[in-house]
Amino acid sequence: MTLLLSASERRIFDLVWRQGPIARTDLVALSGMAGPSVTRLVRSLADRNLLEERVNRTGARGQPTRPVSIRPEGGRALGIYFSHHHVEMGMVDLGGRLINHDSRPIVDASPASLARLTNDFLSDMKSMADGPLLGIGLAVPGDFIDGARRLNAHAFFPALARQDALADYAANVGEPVSVENDAASAALGERLVGVAQTIDSFLFVHIGHGVGGGIFMNGRLVRGARGNAGMLGIQFPNDRPRPSGQDLFATLSAAGIAADDFVDLEALDLNSCPVLRGWIRRAGAQLRAQLSITARLLDPDAVVIGGRLPLPLLQALTVEVGGAGFCDEGVGLPIPRVLCSALGRRAGVVGAAALPIVRTLLDWREDEALPGLPATSHY
């Protein structure tokens, strides 16, 4: 679905997304627009079923208020996120809720196989979904060489590294497709509906098969010249122990514990598995040392720890990262908060679905982009 919203309409929608339910008078104050303009924009968005005004009669005398809020059923987006043996697919509505979710096995990540899984999922959702489909967000496990035309894909997904593989996929699904790397997508999910919803500047740490990152500064995703900003993994050489999911699987396997994908970690108890506890301590210490440097370079309000690990492991890792020694140079500088992802391992699929939502409804500052910096790749 194509929605041609003006920058002013996107600005109002963005404010309601973050602040709503919100009175029109507050929208006027926050947007800097005139009252009649805000009224006109709210009405236009309501006519498109994106916003709604509900009478609020509680707690006040006189005339009831009519706060403006997002209409969740006004649209939806599909997010796709990769694991070793499965592809996660999730439908997110405009309330930021994951309304449908499934994990489907995949033998390879070829464009044809991926398009077939996508079309099957969309077909299954037709009878139970509310609102028009805004598009598909693809969180790819890799980095950009030539935009989305060519990826440096993770070794588990060689088919994605073929020239124009994503363009072939998009041609076979028949819906608008937005592409971002998996770490940046997860960061976007946290910004829209997670712990960073009200944090304008933060560093997101993505523990997946590798180690990745996403950077938000002044409310915008920082992509870099080629879309690869936030490559935290280069701080941890592949030929040494590192704080990555693949390293965790190797550590567990060496101790005789069978686990080769993230779903296998769900069955492990941190309290009764000393190998797992040892990895958390070591990985936490590695991240704490390197993130102290990165955080001082970027000066974020917070560092958010997330990715594919189950939530108890993410929480334990967050405690380790934020422990004694994190950004503690002894000079009295403010220390960024270290937060655990509120979305846990769902951040990836929610973040992927956020891509078309941002592209269609929320990105109101495209005119401020620096020349030569590419936007998220779209088809």
Mind explaining what this structure looks like?
- The protein is of the alpha/beta class.
- It folds into 3 domains: 64 residues, Arc Repressor Mutant, subunit A, CATH 1.10.10; 134 residues, 2-Layer Sandwich (Nucleotidyltransferase, domain 5), CATH 3.30.420; 148 residues, ATPase, nucleotide binding domain (Nucleotidyltransferase, domain 5).
- The chain contains 10 helices and 15 strands.
- The strands form 4 sheets. A 6-stranded mixed β-sheet has the order 5-4-3-6-9-15, with helices on both faces.
- Strand 11 and strand 12 form a beta hairpin.
- Helix 2 packs across helix 3 and helix 8 crosses helix 9.
- The chain is globular.
- The two termini are 13 Å apart.
- The relative contact order is 0.15.
- About 3% of the residues have low confidence.
- Pfam families: ROK.
- This is ROK family transcriptional regulator.
- It comes from Sphingomonas morindae.
Strand and helix layout:
Layout: H1 7-19, H2 24-31, H3 35-47, E1 51-53, E2 68-70, E3 76-82, E4 86-93, E5 98-105, H4 111-125, E6 133-140, E7 142-144, E8 151-153, H5 165-173, E9 177-181, H6 182-193, E10 202-207, E11 211-217, E12 220-222, H7 245-254, H8 274-298, E13 302-307, H9 311-321, E14 337-340, H10 347-362, E15 377-378
Parallel strand pairs: 3-6, 6-9, 10-13, 13-14
Antiparallel strand pairs: 1-2, 3-4, 4-5, 7-8, 9-15, 10-11, 11-12
